[in-house]
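Complex 345.
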Amino acid sequence: MSNAANGTAPGAGPSPGDRPIRAHVTGWGRYVPSQVLTNADLEKMVDTNDEWITERTGIKTRHIAEPGAANSDLCLEAARIALDDAGVDPAELDIVIVGTLTPDMPFPATACFLQAKIGATRAYGMDLSAACSGFVYSLSVADALIRAGRGKKALVVGAEILSSVVDYTDRSTCILFGDGAGAAVLTECPEGDGVLSCHLHSDGNLWKLIYCPGGGTLHPYSPEMVEQRLRFIRMAGNETFKHAVLRMVEVSNEALTRNGVTIDDVKLFIPHQANLRIIQVVGKRLGIPEERVFVDLEKYGNTSAASIPIALAEAKAQGRFAAGDLVLVVAFGGGLTWASALMRM
Ligand code: ACO
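Predicted structure with acetyl coenzyme *A bound:
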């Protein structure tokens, strides 16, 4: 089952020329907490070692939020930088969207907490749950709202405190995940620039490959739920790996075809930072040289919805793309969900 969002299908936006308006990303920001969890630290917690983690994942360190920190605190830090970068006052914002699987509370939305903290007084806010695809899904929604005239300026954040749902006795998952936030400011701009197209997919039949069973209505919080460790992430790593490669290649090609460009036209390819081996295989299958594939997961691990906006902000800070360059982002995560977006910077 695949909810294709291509061409005239929902999710891809109107065909070029249908509307005079697009959304352009005008500011980027990222924030990671100061506390660092190294592979050496993990060696003391579970039966693992630096060599295994490095060879199998490429990850060396991840950042972990302080106890008591809320997701919206991380959002706030990244959002301030992005707004500053864009030269946008929070009071000018129309839309605030937070992509996350680790919200402050079941409700209200983390976006509403962020709205209050940042002073986005006239905006409307909502959260979006699409696991590691959360940022690209949120970007697509903000883009569609701007194109539809439901606002001119949007703040889109991907943020996670994954350490709150990671089982630090499970060596197959605890080595992978980290905390952090990345933010983007989208502003209405003339056609021909900005977010060119977004492509969203999901397959709910494969939900069991990566999920967090507890804390919702199916397994509400209870002593039994906690005892059975249902509040933690569960993942079939090998199976997830295969789907990730297949779908990320597919949805990248979908974005290229939709816009009549080839991978040679793409200045920078930013894939979800889950595993270096996944990134390398996807890059190879797409035929893009390593120097045009962005990787920062050695420092941050898999930060789920925060992975792509953190990478984008970091790539911008490193001067890896300039105005007019094409940047292709591609995400994959629980759901299963997968998504891509092609942007002219
Ligand atoms: N240290 C040492 N050994 C380990 C560790 C560890 N940390 N973890 C697992 N092992 C062992 C296993 O027990 C197994 O041992 P066995 O052969 O004796 O049974 C062996 O290593 C191989 O295990 P695999 O699971 O086959 O290892 P694999 O090479 O597949 O790597 C990994 C595991 C890193 C999880 C990989 O499968 C992966 O990255 N999968 C994709 C994850 C992903 O993309 N997620 C995206 C979505 S995330 C989201 O949406 C929130």
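The chain is about 30% helix and 25% strand.
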